[in-house]
Amino acid sequence: MGEDTRGDEETEQEQDEVSISKHYGWLLTLYELSETSILSITGDKSILDLNIVFIFNFLSMKNEIDRKKAQEQKKQVEKIKMQSYGRRIR
């Protein structure tokens, strides 16, 4: 009863992401790139014309930024929860 299931939910989400990646492979990468402004950075007209090393660096940077944002959001949620319970955060 009252067990914390957030870890289970995060694991399920990670498994879903892995299965999507396995199923779609590079198509998913091309889709992710199409949702960015990467072409405006390089001046290229097509994602397929981009240098692969640049793509990997760009995606690594994007992942780190997304991870940092998720950590910050998680901290904010925890802070709000603690405040709602009337506890003092140090």
Oligomer: single chain
Provide the number of structural domains. 1
Following the backbone from N to C, one meets helices and strands in this order, namely: HHHH
Give the class from helix and strand content and strand pairing: mainly alpha
Termini, distance in Å? 29 Å
Give the rounded overall mean pLDDT.
Answer: 80
Strand content: under 5%
Note the overall shape: elongated
The Rg value, from CA coordinates, equals: 19 Å
Number of helices: 4
Beta strands, count: 0
Brief summary:
This protein is mainly alpha-helical and 90 residues long. It has helices at 6-24, 26-34, 38-42, 52-84.
Explain what this protein looks like in three dimensions.
The chain contains 4 helices and no strands. The protein has 90 residues and is an all-alpha fold. The chain has one domain. The mean pLDDT is 80.
Tags for this model:
elongated; 90 residues; mainly alpha
Please render the helix and strand layout as text.
Blueprint: H1 6-24, H2 26-34, H3 38-42, H4 52-84
